[in-house]
Write a structure and sequence with these properties.
EC number: 5.3.3.8
Bound molecules: ligand L24GHEU4
Pathway: Lipid metabolism; fatty acid beta-oxidation
Shape: globular
Helix content: 40-55%
Mean pLDDT: 84
Number of helices: 15
Subcellular location: Mitochondrion; Peroxisome matrix
Function: Able to isomerize both 3-cis and 3-trans double bonds into the 2-trans form in a range of enoyl-CoA species. Has a preference for 3-trans substrates.
Region (Disordered): 120-140
Distance between the termini: 37 Å
Length: 394
Amino acid sequence: VAMAHLVAGLARCWCPSPLQVINFPVVQLHMSLMAMRASQKDFENAMNQVKLLKKDPGNEVKLKLYALYKQATEGPCNTPKPGVFDLISKAKWDTWSALGSLPKETARQNYVDLVSSLSSSSKSSGQVEPGADRKPPGYETLVVTSEDGITKIMLNRPTKKNAMNRQMYHEIMLALEAASKDDSRITVITGNGDYYSSGNDLTNFTDMASGKVEELAKNSAILLRNFVGCFIDFPKPLVAVVNGPAVGISVTTLGLFDAVYSTDRATFHTPFSHLGQSPEGCSSYTFPRIMSPSKATEMLIFGKKLTAREACAQGLVTEVFPDSTFQKEVWTRLKAYAKLPPNAMRISKEVIRNKEKEKLHAINAEECSVLQERWLSDECMNAVMNFLSRKAKL
Ligand SMILES: CCCCC/C=C/CC(=O)SCCNC(=O)CCNC(=O)[C@H](O)C(C)(C)COP(=O)(O)OP(=O)(O)OC[C@H]1O[C@@H](n2cnc3c(N)ncnc32)[C@H](O)[C@@H]1OP(=O)(O)O
């Protein structure tokens, strides 16, 4: 349901008309192509053409259209930043704000050009296909359940070792938002299959090899910042049930959980240097504090892989359990914890987290902006290409 809300919300946000719907009638489109300087009339035409697009252009394009429309009509973003859990408004605000001081005329031209490119790639057959672009409700990359006072968010791409693709980042944010408001007392993140998660899905970077790499890097940095922001702000006790090896962002974000229970089969590593990347998930701040600066360096710079017992000795993991009894022991304990008074748990978390919330958000912003540059480096692109061409296992 939350996913449906986001999709519907974004479907509304890219076009000024409140009547905009997700399905588009199939209509032959007539374009004012390649106008060097878009007039107000061109702009109005483009707004009308947007409503006639046959194919849903996807959320990123809709956000871009929204931002360009706002910039063209109102100028630079001048509204207060929405809260981190107001996902749709925040995504819209971020995209508009990213346009900086782009002149109104240029934004108008870019809007017209973008609509033009969408329209020319939109096939027209003269028939309406009801429901063709409608997404089914629910999560595609997660299984989310709630019982015994515990909401369990299970990463569910076991054949890809639960690598986090863009869809999964968005769905985790939505699931956390929903869990923050449901009547559960504890929220758990775990993985399906033999891995907790192999971290960022490296195919997220495939598009960087072609076309608008700067734009993709910028959008990825915004997505990452919002994603990590949800962990910083999550108001209830958040527990990781680490059912197997964890890599990259699935390790760094552990520093933002309230407890981390691990099977003795799990390993933990962050191969950032191997990938030409740099730390994220606030790990540049949390890891040196949790471990010691030099132990954090071994992980974050040299990519040292820790066993579960080593990670526990370093303070990253709360407790390690034998794999054979892991699930039974952990869930028995969590069910007992979930009987504790919910308000007391929430308030205690608030007292602990509030001391450094602002700092964590600042660290998150800085890490994302450094990464945005890193993603464009040869070191990063070569490492990703190596993985995708199966030359290297990390
Ligand atoms: C929006 C952008 C935000 C960016 C945030 C940045 C985060 C930084 C990080 O997270 S860095 C960490 C990135 N992760 C990795 O580098 C891990 C890469 N994967 C591996 O090294 C290995 O796959 C493995 C060690 C995790 C597992 O090896 P194993 O041999 O046991 O299994 P396979 O390699 O055969 O994997 C099975 C299939 O899963 C696919 N896969 C696994 N991990 C990833 C991944 N991270 N990205 C994309 N795909 C992944 C793998 O390709 C296999 O798929 P196939 O069966 O179709 O070949």
